[in-house]
């Protein structure tokens, strides 16, 4: 009997595809075998301009992996996870083996429930401060996956990193290749991938930081002038660290969602190597930054579409 054809795995795959990804490219495939789900990087969905080294794609697959694990636990099964299990197949990022029955913890249930509620909120946030308890919770969530979450305002680094984000955003505005790639993944209603106009948010007319705009809308809104900006780091870099960072990112985002917080990404400095180098120097040479995002209390928005689980699933070779 192939246990990966059971409702447990169906639910797990439907949760996995809800992970965030750059431009909502969904760069993952899932290979099914007896008691096994392999998480594979889909090379055909890597962004060639802003992610040529596949960094963001691996982060996305790491986030999908955590969703997969949480959904399996919530459905009453345990699993073993092996990262980068085959050296001669670098696109194979993780192998998940289904194991015995499992009683999900309250934390696992809470995070699994948050998977469908989480989305990137590209609209302005309310001015309500993020309390100390919520800040601590998202930091602790990243630490559980071996990462560190740095809240820039607490270290006096917000202005310096904000300047770096603005410069990187300006460079991407002038990059015709980047703009063409962004337009290609800005989709109309009915598409199963990309960022539809309704989820793109308004054009920023003010605020400390530029939120990446998708779509052709001329609507403008002022964004928050004192955002809570987080940088997720790990002690090392490379494919393994990037998959782990993706897991940590998703655990932090799901924890934020469970606390009623919204989030969206400032990907600009991570997509320009020189800006990423400067960011690392600001944080300290012992920290390798992977993602920058803002946290706050957002007004209700909409989730972006996803390809159905069957479209990203195949039988394991």
UniProtKB/TrEMBL annotation:
Bilayer-crossing residues are none
Domain of life assignment = Bacteria
- GO MF entries: oxidoreductase activity
- Entry's InterPro entries? Nitroreductase-like (IPR000415), Nitroreductase/BluB (IPR050627)
The secretion signal range is: none
Write down what this protein is called: Nitroreductase
Source organism: Amycolatopsis umgeniensis
Q: What is the lineage of its organism?
A: Bacteria, Bacillati, Actinomycetota, Actinomycetes, Pseudonocardiales
């Amino acid at each position: 009997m192939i246990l990966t054809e059971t409702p447990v795995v169906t639910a797990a795959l439907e949760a996995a595809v809800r992970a965030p990804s750059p431009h909502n490219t969904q760069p993952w495939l899932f290979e099914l075998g007896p008691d096994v789900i392999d998480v594979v990087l889909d090379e055909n969905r890597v962004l060639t301009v802003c992610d040529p080294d596949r960094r963001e794609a691996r982060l996305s697959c790491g986030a999908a992996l955590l969703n997969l694990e949480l959904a399996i636990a919530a459905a009453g099964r345990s699993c073993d996870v092996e990262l980068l299990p085959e050296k001669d197949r670098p696109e194979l990022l993780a192998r998940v083996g289904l194991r015995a029955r499992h009683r999900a913890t309250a934390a696992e249930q809470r995070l699994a429930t948050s998977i469908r509620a989480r989305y990137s909120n590209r609209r302005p946030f309310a001015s309500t401060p993020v309390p100390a308890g919520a800040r601590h919770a998202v930091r602790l969530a990243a630490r559980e996956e071996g990462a560190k979450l740095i809240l820039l305002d607490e270290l006096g680094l917000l202005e310096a990193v904000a300047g770096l984000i603005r410069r990187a955003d300006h460079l991407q505005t002038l990059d015709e290749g980047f703009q063409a790639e962004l337009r290609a993944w800005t989709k109309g209603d009915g598409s199963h991938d990309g960022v539809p106009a309704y989820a793109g948010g308004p054009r920023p007319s003010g605020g400390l930081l530029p939120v990446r705009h998708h779509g052709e809308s001329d609507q403008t809104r002022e964004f928050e002038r004192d955002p809570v900006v987080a940088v997720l780091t790990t002690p090392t870099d490379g494919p393994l660290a990037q998959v782990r960072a993706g897991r940590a990112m998703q655990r932090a985002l799901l924890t934020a969602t469970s606390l009623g917080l919204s989030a969206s990404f400032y990907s600009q400095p991570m997509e320009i190597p020189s800006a990423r180098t400067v960011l690392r120097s600001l944080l300290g040479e012992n920290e390798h930054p992977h993602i920058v995002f803002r946290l706050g209390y957002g007004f209700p928005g909409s989730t972006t579409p996803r390809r159905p689980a069957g479209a990203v699933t195949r039988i394991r070779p």
